[in-house]
Amino acid sequence: MGWRNRPTFKHNWNKDIDYIMFIDENGDASIDHIVKALKNNKPISDNTFFTITGCLMHRNDFIKSKDDILKIKYKYWENGLALYSNKSKRVCFHSREVRGRKYPFDNNSIEVQSFMNDLSNYMKGLPITIFSYTMDKKSHCSRYYDPYSLYTLGLEFIFERLVKYHLNHDEKVIIIIESRGKREDKELLNHIKDLIDHGTRYVSNSYFKKIKGVYFNPKWSKEDDYKKSYFGLEIADLVSFPIHKYCRNGFSDKDLPFLCIEDKIYGYPDYYGKGIKTFPIIKKTVPEGRPLALANPRKI
C-alpha cells in the first residue's frame, strides 16, 4: 500500500526525490471553544495564536545535518540516550523541554550553557529554508461565520509558496508531519491529497504534482526500539517556536533562537508575506516601521 491509501511513516528517501519538508506547529489549532465564547460574549483569556512551520532540506544536506545533530547528542548524553518514563530512548530535542531546562536538558544532566551554545551554532549552520504561517484564532473566528480549519489553511499557504515560488518545475519533494493520531492523520492526508489533485484557488494542481508523498512519523522509531528519533521533526520543532513567539509579540522579539534562523526564512531579508505570513493582520508594525499588509487569508 502506498502513502495515498493511509497514513504511513517514512524511513528513507527515494533516490529521485530532491527535497524533504518537515512540519511542526505551536499552539492549539482548535477553535470550537473560541467560537463558543464569542457567540456567548464570554472573555477569551488564553493564548489565541497558532503557528505552523515547514523546514525544507535538500537531500545533499541531509546526511551531514543528521550526523551533526547526533554529535551533539553523543557529546552530552552517553550513547546519545536518556531515560523517558524509565525507557532508554534517543535524546529528542523538544523545544519546550529545552527552553524550560527540563530533563534531560537540566543542569543536573548536562552543562546547559555549553549545550545551548552548541545547539545555537548547529541551528545557525543548518541548510534549510523556512516557511511559516501564524494565525490569531480570536480575530479569525470573529471575522468569519464559518472559520477555516487553521491547520489545513496553514498548510495550504506553506505548500503554495513551496511548489509555485521555490521549487523548480522538475524538482520533487516529500512531506513529513508528526503523527497526531489515526483519525487526525487520515483527515489531514485526505485534505493534502485533495490539494495535490485539484490545487487551490490561487495555485493550480500542476504545481502540487511536485509533492510526491506525505508521511506521518512519530518522534521516535518503534522499529528501532526508540533508539532512533526523526531529527527533521526536531528541527521543525526548534524552528517553529521562535517564529511563533516573534509573531505573537508583534514582530518585536528577535531573541537568540530567532536570530539563529532568521536568514533561513524564505524571502530573507524581505520575508514578511513570504516565508512568514500572518492572518488576520497583526495590528503592529515590523521593526523597520512598515506595516505587515496581509489582509486576505486566501491572497498570495
Helix count? 10
Large-scale geometry? globular
Count of spatially separate domains: 1
CATH class category label: Alpha Beta
Based on the coordinates given, report the CATH architecture: 2-Layer Sandwich
Average residue pLDDT: 87
Strand % is 15-25%
As a whole number of angstroms, the C-alpha radius of gyration is: 19 Å
User: Termini separation (Å)?
Assistant: 35 Å
Which fold name is given in CATH as the topology? Answer: Nucleotidyltransferase, domain 5
Summarize the helices and strands and which ones pair or pack.
Layout: E1 19-26, H1 32-39, E2 49-58, H2 59-76, E3 81-84, E4 87-90, H3 95-99, H4 112-125, E5 128-136, H5 137-143, H6 150-166, E6 173-178, H7 182-198, H8 205-208, E7 211-217, H9 231-248, H10 256-261, E8 276-279
Parallel strand pairs: 1-6, 5-8, 6-7
Antiparallel strand pairs: 1-2, 2-5, 3-4
